[in-house]
Write a structure and sequence with these properties.
44% helix; Rossmann fold
Length: 723
């Protein structure tokens, strides 16, 4: 049989993985090493050479996009449709199993699947039925608790409260939620996996059937599996008698970055112990990045303990050094990055070939602002632009309501955000009264409170909201814009809402709200194109205009912005990783929780290996975070990359040096001489010892009497020349 079409263009390690005899196998696939190619070719090999029926294969991955790509590539290689094959996500395949065996799973035939919003509404109904206060038993917290327990394979009866009253109440809610779902004939996403696991585990006949049917199970991105997903796979695996599926596992422990949402890197480490006869093959040849980028990534990740271990290499070019830019502050960082992208585009490169990566979602704002200023279209990949994010729109709605009580859209958005007892019934009464009397909702609320019809509880909740807004208005009317914004974010309850929720998403929302304060502080009212009567109104108009511009149309060539987590699986010729500072990347949370540092380092490794040709790392010597100025240290990750792979760059001059007596000009036209004595607001008195760069990027090195030597950007430093 001619199998050249299957094995052509595979390297030796890939070929070994594709042609290996049946049995448990772990393919340790490094970044850019062709893991999808290996999976697809393995399926083709099993069908065409080993004679396995296509319907005896089960291939599982994590996203619908990845599953669709796998199906299309198998079809192209096999030249046959794969519609009958079981190729899909864990949740998709679990859903398919439950549809086929709804009766055995104790579900109605027409059971429905709840999305996250539906699940949240169901939890809220349960809390109302149990007469529990949503301000104490926060629905999103409850949803997270239930899903996490299901991901661990735990029903309420399996969990010991240990006598803890809070845990007891959570288990009571979990139990009531399960009863409500069963009565309604619905399942949530986590339930799909748990119910299908229980179906196979507890029904021996079904388990035998599927272990016999699926002779080979192939799993992609295995490092991202959680407890229940691994248990689900193991139920189908061959036992000591040889019955069951042969497992073909593809993953990379160095790219395990989703521990915060339940993924267990321990699963990939346990696989060899659980299947002692497992064959491990390493895919280390990289087809994406230059040798310099790979060497830096290898050096960084080698600092992690308990790795299965591999070393990426390439037959490609050595490539340019990794550029390292120390920005004066976050504005200088954004300006440098966007100026670099403009030069890249001028060389004939596509805008979409450049990607800006960051650890925190809130970092996107300044890059968006600079891109819009320079007229460059952009797309925030896997997320919303800054002013379109829900928590930002909530905060702006409060501010708009302070500026204009007749803003009905803002009134409706925040009357019950955070939850304060103003439900749909109250809102319907307000809408009806407003329509009948031709009033804004604010005035309708004042009128409704003077009439009978509201319960005492509803009346108190509505009155409380009006008093909250009026109180905030009185408190902020004479404050600077950023202090108005900060006061509203705090006193509206938005900040506390997300701080209580905890978790990665809630933490990102808190950071975004704090970044809104920075946006207000940096808003230039006097140079604004918005002509309004006061600064708050002008800022709100500015936010609305920014929310409506800049984002590229589908298919348009545009600069890519995204978090490091969103970047996994993608690649770009030019990559910027920004904010590589202690406390930001690695995050403060990771530094506080020792066990999180290894995952942060893996995240940095993932970011580095997204770059194909050029990689630029940036950090700021001063950054405004959480309403305060910080002077962070460069990230420890920078120190873990050998200096031979880094090039310390200054804008327009990679080697800081200058002849004595040269004279860079400040924007105000006054020059500074080397040897000139200057005064800085924070660092005090010092002497100019060096300079570099030109224009808005001109920098001087000043040796301060009490603070040591520092590089400062003239455009921001506001240095006072001493006589």
């Amino acid at each position: 049989m001619d199998v050249s079409h299957i094995l052509d263009q595979l390297n030796p390690a890939q070929r070994e993985a594709v042609t290996a005899p049946p049995g448990p196998m772990l393919v340790l696939a490094g970044a850019g090493s062709g893991k999808t190619r290996v999976l697809v070719h393995r399926m083709a090999w099993l069908i065409q050479v080993e004679g396995i029926s296509p319907f005896s294969l089960l291939a599982v991955t994590f996203t619908n996009k990845a599953a669709s790509e796998m199906r299309h590539r198998v079809e192209a290689l096999q030249n046959m449709p794969v519609s009958g094959m079981w190729v899909g996500t864990f949740h998709g395949l679990a859903h398919r199993l439950l549809r086929a065996h709804w009766k055995e799973a104790n579900l109605p035939q027409a059971f429905q699947v709840l999305d996250s919003d539906d699940q949240l509404r169901m939890v809220k109904r349960v809390l109302r039925n149990l007469e529990l206060d949503e301000t104490r038993w926060i629905p999103k917290h409850i949803t997270g608790f239930i899903n996490a327990r299901k991901d661990e394979g735990l029903r309420p009866q399996h969990i010991n409260s240990g006598g803890d009253p809070v845990q007891q109440q959570l288990l009571r809610i979990y139990t009531a939620y399960e009863v409500a779902c069963q009565r309604a004939g619905v399942v949530d996403f986590a339930e799909l996996l748990l119910r299908s696991l229980e179906l196979l585990r507890d029904n021996e006949e079904l388990r035998r059937h599927y272990r016999s049917r699926f002779r080979h199970v192939l799993v992609d991105e295995f490092q991202d599996t959680n407890t229940i997903q691994y248990a689900w796979v193991r139920l189908l695996a061959a036992d000591k008698s040889g019955d069951g599926a042969h497992l073909f596992i593809v993953g990379d422990d160095d790219q395990a970055i989703y521990g915060w949402r339940g993924a267990r890197v321990e699963n990939i480490h346990s696989f060899k112990k659980d299947f002692p006869s497992c064959l491990m093959i390493k895919l280390e040849q990289n087809y994406r990045s230059t040798a310099t980028i790979l060497n830096a990534a290898n050096a960084l990740i080698s600092r992690n303990d308990d790795r299965l271990g591999k070393n990426l290499w390439t037959q490609g070019k050595q490539g340019e050094p990794i550029k390292l830019y120390a920005a004066y502050n976050e504005q200088d960082e954004a300006r440098y990055v966007i100026d670099s992208i403009k030069r890249w585009i001028e060389l004939g490169n596509a805008r979409s070939d450049a990607a800006i990566l960051y650890r925190s979602n809130a970092q996107s704002r300044l890059f968006e602002e600079q891109l819009m200023f320079d007229g460059l279209p952009y797309r925030v990949y896997g997320g919303l632009r800054f002013f379109e994010r829900a928590e930002i729109k909530d905060a702006l709605a409060y501010l708009r309501l302070l500026a204009n009580r007749s803003d009905d859209a803002s009134f409706e958005r925040v009357i019950n955000q955070p939850t304060r007892g103003n439900g749909n019934k109250t809102l319907e009464q307000l809408r009806e009264l407003a329509r009948n009397m031709n009033l804004p909702l604010w005035q309708a609320a004042q009128t409704l409170l003077q009439q009978p019809g509201l319960t005492a509880r509803a009346g108190n909740a509505l009155r409380g909201f009006l008093q909250l807004v009026e109180g905030m208005h009185e408190a902020v009317k004479n404050l600077p814009l950023h202090e108005q914004t900060e006061h509203v974010i705090q006193h509206s309850g938005l900040l506390d809402l997300y701080r209580q929720e905890k978790g990665e998403k809630a933490e990102a929302r808190v950071e975004n709200l704090q970044e809104l304060v920075n946006a207000a502080r940096g808003y230039d009212f006097h140079n604004s194109d918005v002509v309004e009567t006061d600064m708050l109104t002008a800022f709100l108009a500015h936010a609305a205009l920014e929310a409506g511009e800049g984002q590229a149309d589908a298919g348009e060539d545009c600069v890519q912005l995204m978090t490091l987590h969103s970047a996994k699986g993608l690649e770009f010729p030019l990559v910027f990783i920004c904010g590589v500072e202690e406390g930001l990347f690695p995050s403060e949370r990771a530094r506080a929780e020792g066990g999180r540092m290894q995952e942060e380092r893996r995240l940095c490794y993932v970011g580095i290996t997204r770059a194909r040709q050029q990689l630029v790392l940036t950090y700021a010597e001063r950054r405004r975070l959480y309403g305060k100025d910080y002077y962070p240290l460069p990230s420890q990750f920078l120190g873990e990359i050998p200096a031979e792979y880094l090039q310390d760059v200054r804008f327009g001059n990679s080697k800081p040096s200058s002849p004595a007596g040269s004279k860079p000009q400040q924007q105000n036209g006054r020059g500074l001489m080397i040897g000139q004595r200057v005064q800085h607001q924070k660092f005090g008195e010092g002497m100019v010892t060096n300079y570099e760069g030109q224009g808005s990027h001109a920098r001087v090195e000043v040796n301060f009497r009490n603070s040591g030597s520092k590089w400062l950007v003239l455009a921001y430093a506001n240095l006072e020349v001493k006589a």
